[in-house]
Amino acid sequence: MSLFTDIKNYPPANEQEARDKEQMLFYMEHNIDYLSRENQTAHFTASAWTINKECTKTLMVYHNIYHSWSWIGGHADGEENLRLVAMRELQEETGVKNALLVNPEIFSLELLTVNGHIRKGIYVPGHLHMNVTYLAEADENETLTVNEAENQAVKWWTFEDALKVSEEPWFVEWIYKKLIAKCRQKTVTY
Fold first, then answer.
1. Rounded to whole angstroms, how far apart are CA atoms 109 and 21?
2. What is the CATH number of the domain that holds 15?
């Protein structure tokens, strides 16, 4: 299946997801370079909301650009299979090698605003990340590695503490709380 079809078939969990899904599909229909960060208006990214086996903790990184604890993810960079992107980013940013997708289906959708910033000495203008999140599971005893180009620290947090350590109020309220609630709802079905 194509990314467009995956997103079209995704049942939104709330109004935020429904509105963001609508915008993603519209953008995909009217732009051909939505998988490339060369598109400086908006492009796709993928995240891995990574949980432990007991579904009580999440793995987060302290992000260099945003100066906050955050979930794990990165740019599609031309790759339409965002599952692969999410899992690649999980390994690159944390060193985790044995994580598994809990489910191959999309776990969450969100449009994320990115403020202008300097990356590798070059100014990157403000833009949108059309983000697709997948649910991954990893062993919390696996060795973690900091990717100094991306983050300053990697750590497992209880769901409650993850909400406290993030310095991004919008992410906490609209994304992380939603992801935690979805994990708790789905533990019965996994």
1. 7
2. 3.90.79.10
